[in-house]
Every structure is written in C-alpha cells, then in structure tokens.
Amino acid sequence: MTLEEMKRIKQERGFSLAQLSGYSGVPLGTLQKIFSGETEHPRYATKQALEKALLDKGEGSTFTNDNSCMVSEPQLQYEVPRTKKQGEYTLEDYYALPEDRRVELIDGMVYDMSAPTFVHQRILGEVYMSLRRYIDSKEGTCIPMIAPVDVRLDCDDRTMVQPDVLILCDDSKICKWGIMGAPDFCLEITSETTGRKDYVKKLQKYTDAGVKEYWIIDPVRKALLVYHWKDDYLPHMYPLQGKVGLALYDDELQIDLDKIAALVQDYSDRGKE
Q1: Does position 57 have pLDDT exceeding 60, yes or no?
Q2: Among 110, 117, 239, 273, which is 20 to 30 Å from 80 by CA?
Q3: Which CATH architecture has domain 118-267?
C-alpha cells in the first residue's frame, strides 16, 4: 500500500493520527514523519501494522466517525456555491470569496472568522514580538509570522488555515501566496466561538500534518494549553502565570504569561452593560 493510498483510506475513515497510533501500535511521532513525507521508506513491520489498522473493519475498537464537532461556526451562505454542502468545498471556492472576507477551509468545510478583538490582537502582538526578539538575538533562520497567512496544511485542495501565530523553519515551504505544508509551531488565541475548532479540529489537523508544537491561549479561562510531540505526547495546562518555554527551542525561548494575563485583565470587563 502506498502512502497516498494510506492517506486516502485514513481520510475516508475519519481516523486521526492519535487514533491510528493507538490502533496500530505505531508511535505517534513515527506516524507524523510517515504521513508528512519525512520518512519515505518506513520499516516493513510498520507498514504491515498500518495497513492492518486502516483495512480492518475495527470490530471491537473504540473508533468513531462522529463529525458532530467539525463545525463550530456558521456556514457561509452567499459567496460559496449553495449547491455544495459542508465538507464539499475546495480551494476554488476559497479563492472565489471576496478578498476582505476572512475564512478558513478545513476538510472541505468553510469556517467564517469574525474580526479579532482588541485583547486578541494585543496578545498576538506580545507573543509575536517575544518570538521575533529571541530568534533575532540568536541569528536564527526560522521565521515567525502572524495571521493572516494562508497555510495549505495538508497540501491538498480541501484545507487552508490561518494560524494566529506560527514559526516556519523550512523556507522551501514558502510560496508566493503563503505556506505549503505544516509549520513547526502554531498558536491559536481561542474564544467562545472558536473554542471547539481550536481545541478539537485544529488539534487533530496540526497533529496529523506534523506540526511539532501547538499552543492554545484561552483568555476566557486564563490558561495556556501546550501540545508538543518532541518528548511528550500528553498536553500541559498552565495558568497565565510565570513563564513557559517553547519545546521547539529547548525551553530557552520564554513567553511571559504574566504580561498576557495583564492584557486579558486590563480589557476583559470593558464594554459590558
């Protein structure tokens, strides 16, 4: 079975890499390298385990193909073709939208992105400047970016995302229109309307695509959730206190969570009745 065949069957059955890892016994980090193309020739035993996991009907397994969590924001009704259903949209529909209409396309589903709040933008700026200062001080070659930047995460025509903040270390992925493939680091600043997408759908997509580290800053819960797959597959939850380092830089690049907490506190109660 070729890699493309495995990707197709995985997509059809709705398996995440984490699910496939549990069912096949192949470590998640190994799967990330295989499905991202980093490992071109996996071991024969690994391929056998994956083929069995993908082709098995899964009797007795805990897999589900529940798509109830896939849409957390209203479907666009006007600019995209009304003849299509969520799950059927492609990059052709994405590019047909007006330039001032910001959306994300995830597995053929269109997510309308409302204008970011003032707090969201302040947090985004604070994180970006911390990344920029550190990387510049080390004369690093990785590139930090802030939204909106188009990221064709799966290199197919059904997904285009715009992480709030990202770090890209492989400049061969840079195209005229954006980025083709997975960044090394992604951060989302979640809200009450985007929470399910950030915590569930994007987590699955970033994991499957081979993103090395994923952060979610939640201003409502005043918390930071960190996923990194370099040494640990379990998420880490932090209150917005002290400093937390990026695993991508062996924790040397530190983000000051006290500053982020202050930004949240300064503006969270304004504008209320």
Answers
A1: no
A2: 117
A3: Alpha-Beta Complex (3.90)
